[in-house]
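Notes from the 1:1 (GR / supervisor)

We went over the backlog. Supervisor wanted to see one worked example end to end before approving the batch request, so GR pasted a single chain during the call. The sequence is below; no edits were made to it. Supervisor asked that the structure be written out right there so they could see what the output format looks like.
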Amino acid sequence: MDHIETSASSDTSRGHVRPLVSRLSAPVADREGFLRHLLEHLDEDMAGSVDPEGETTLTIYDCDTRLRFTGETLSVTVEGREAGQHGVAKGVVAYYIQHILGDACPPLVWSGDGADTRELAHFRALRVVSARQITPHMRRVRLSGQDLSRFATGGLHIRLLFPPKGRVPVWPHAGPAALPVWPQGEDELVTRVYTIRSIDPAAGHLDVDVVLHDPPGVGCRWAREAQPGDPVGMLGPGGGEVRSLERLLLLGDETALPAIARTLEELPRTAIGHAIIEVDGPAEEQPLLHPPGVQLRWLHRNGAPAGTTTLLQDAARAAADTVASAPFVWAGCEFEAFKAIRRFCRKDLGLKKNQHLVVAYWRRGRRQDDEPAGDEEG
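Structure output shown during the call:
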């Protein structure tokens, strides 16, 4: 499963790539309520036309997605030209249908292209190449695998899958709804969300930076103990990207440092703004490449526990006064800081949904490599 075919079927007689088309149906009694709930969870730029009485069009992972109601039956068609994106788009649609319908949702089964595959387009089986210390509390793990190109775009975050030690990994596979079917019992996997710090698809490797802390959680222990050759699975990418704009404000603590560092490297050289990063002290600072017009500033807690200060919130308010009109604000931090910065973006700056992305990476009182706080605002 570590190789996923990503080329669509070709129609050689016509000299062009044949679209991949899949269809799905489900019972939906309240079409207006269904569409309203669906659109609340999608990015603004995903929605095309919305018509409960006719056809609603969406763009999901570059796939044309069409929803049409006939009586109390919802019919969905997903059309794409790349097998990887097509598979993921189907899974996204099925996930939201299940989420909205809840217990009333019947088993979902796709027909058409890709219906007979057990491969997850967004999964890769990887191996540890190396692990090294970057700062006293940051460790970098390099992973290698095949067909990594799709992980270079489409989101900063991935979900790493850790198999039980001493067992041959059993990886998830695609079910009839194009969603992962997970191994159970002795083969059960533990998963954690991380950021791809850097990726080189041509060389076949990527780097993940992990914050080390005590007591260690699953991901922290993995980073400390990782040995060359250790297997690990990967699902993704996701979680949104920083828009490549000319004016922006980046905010985060050490858990968001990998995302900020990668973003700074990928920004256009003409970008201007601020990148403000909270860490424990000077020893945790890293040399970061960034456009000359982006001012990099480090905030030090100086021994205060992570998540107990208002350094990021205060810095956001101070920096916003110097950022030109209509900035893009990205923030990744502890849950309380997330709420304050989100409120600041909405109420004080009046930013629209597509002008900010604020993420709660962790919640104080939980280990920082436990499951994320689960809140994101874009």
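Supervisor's comment: The first helix runs from residue 31 to 40.
Batch request approved.
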